[in-house]
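In response to the reviewer comment on reproducibility (Comment 2.3), we provide here a single inverse folding case reported in full, input and output, so that an independent group could reproduce the run without further information from us. The structure tokens appear first.
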């Protein structure tokens, strides 16, 4: 994927960014020059894996797991901010930093784990988009997967001609998802007091709720997004000194908060819609196809169609981002590039295998998110480690409070994983 070898802005965009850094340009147009990296990373937080886990959470438990969605989104903000900080300050992405600072054996193990996580990620993204195509066009899932693969490849080629163009493509798809779920909330008319209480009342009613909670975290805080964000910021601008880096970090942190707040609201809306539509009389709805067919009589055909459009936009956009992240991971760890079609084929292969074996697509999506949650603590702890090193980050090394908060967040996810593993191994 040579066109994404350098995930940076064009020379004209970089020149405009320099004018902002020296104070020659201000205002909204100046801020928009820095928009893009967090927007692209945010699509990982609205992918079909989120659809699958959020539908199960809302249908089975109503609003009681909304606190998990909110907590996962806050953790995502923290770590996407750290990832962007690493790229801006060091000029290297997380994969490159791991390669340069870890021993060869550790680097190889981390690369293989990251590739495995990228495949699990793309399984959810690619299959989810294909489900949308299948239901919209009333064709087989396998045929829909072929169409989705070709469509994703075409958009990757088109976007590869200019990185700003890719940002605009992803931005349009993110806006589509957001508008779809605003419309869904209008149809659902939820009780907002119950929604608010669900967001701030931690509870895990049973073992299945724990599995779904870990899946929600795996679908929200994504390993490939942590790698990708540092790559998106490392070459976007060329800071001359620490004052420039400080300004870049300010713009980046603002974008992270805005983009991931929007992603978090979309995830909350998914759970709310599923709770409103299914919890009262259809708690066993755990399948995207069943959810679509059940929505029509409950909320109307328009709500069901909007749901499919959002799923399709999510699957296509997240597949694009997943392929970009996979390429960056491979380049960073082993200094190897592969053609676009090869990279796309590597990440699509497990999805075709799973469907060919007859595995339930939605079940595969949820389990893939659980797998991702187990892979997640490794890049999280790596980010905590690297961004705390003054020798690497200079004056931008994280302070004790931020470092402790990030470490505790990573421990929280690790503890949930251990709890789930103990539950699964219980005789």
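Designed residues, in position order:
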């Amino acid at each position: 994927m040579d066109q994404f070898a350098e995930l940076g802005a064009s020379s004209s965009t970089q020149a405009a960014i320099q004018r902002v850094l020296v104070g020659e340009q201000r205002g909204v147009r100046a801020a928009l020059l820095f928009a893009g990296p967090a927007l692209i990373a945010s699509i990982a937080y609205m992918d079909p894996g989120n659809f699958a886990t959020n539908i199960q959470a809302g249908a089975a438990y109503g609003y009681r797991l909304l606190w998990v969605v909110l907590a996962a989104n806050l953790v995502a903000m923290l770590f996407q901010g750290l990832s962007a900080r690493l790229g801006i300050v060091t000029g290297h992405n997380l994969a490159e930093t791991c390669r340069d600072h870890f021993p060869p054996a550790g680097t190889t193990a981390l690369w293989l784990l990251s590739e495995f996580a990228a495949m699990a990620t793309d399984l959810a993204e690619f299959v989810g988009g294909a489900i949308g195509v299948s239901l919209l066009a009333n064709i087989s899932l396998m045929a829909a997967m072929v169409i989705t693969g070709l469509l994703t490849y075409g958009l990757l080629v088109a976007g590869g001609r200019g990185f700003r163009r890719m940002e605009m493509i992803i931005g349009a798809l993110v806006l589509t998802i957001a508008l779809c779920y605003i419309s869904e909330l209008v149809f659902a008319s939820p009780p907002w007091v119950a929604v608010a209480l669900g967001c701030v009342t931690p509870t895990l009613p049973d073992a299945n709720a724990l599995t779904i909670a870990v899946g929600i975290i795996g679908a929200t805080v994504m390993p490939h997004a942590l790698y990708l964000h540092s790559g998106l910021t490392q070459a976007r601008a060329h800071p001359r000194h620490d004052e420039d880096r400080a300004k870049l970090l300010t713009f980046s942190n603002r974008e992270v908060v805005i983009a991931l707040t929007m992603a978090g609201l979309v995830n909350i809306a998914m759970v709310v819609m599923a709770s409103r539509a299914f919890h009262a009389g259809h708690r066993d709805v755990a399948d995207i196809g069943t959810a679509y067919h059940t929505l029509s009589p409950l909320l109307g055909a328009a709500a069901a169609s909007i749901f499919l459009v959002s799923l399709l936009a999510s699957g296509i956009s997240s597949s694009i981002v997943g392929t970009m992240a996979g390429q960056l991971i491979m380049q960073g760890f082993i200094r190897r590039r592969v053609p676009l079609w090869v990279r796309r084929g590597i990440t699509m292969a497990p999805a075709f295998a799973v469907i060919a074996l007859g595995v339930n697509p939605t079940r595969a999506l949820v389990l893939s998110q659980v797998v991702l949650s187990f892979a997640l603590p490794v890049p999280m702890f790596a980010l905590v480690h690297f961004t705390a090193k003054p020798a690497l980050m200079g004056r931008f090394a994280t302070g004790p409070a931020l470092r402790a908060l990030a470490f505790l967040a990573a421990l929280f996810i690790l503890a949930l994983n251990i709890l789930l593993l103990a539950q699964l191994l219980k005789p």
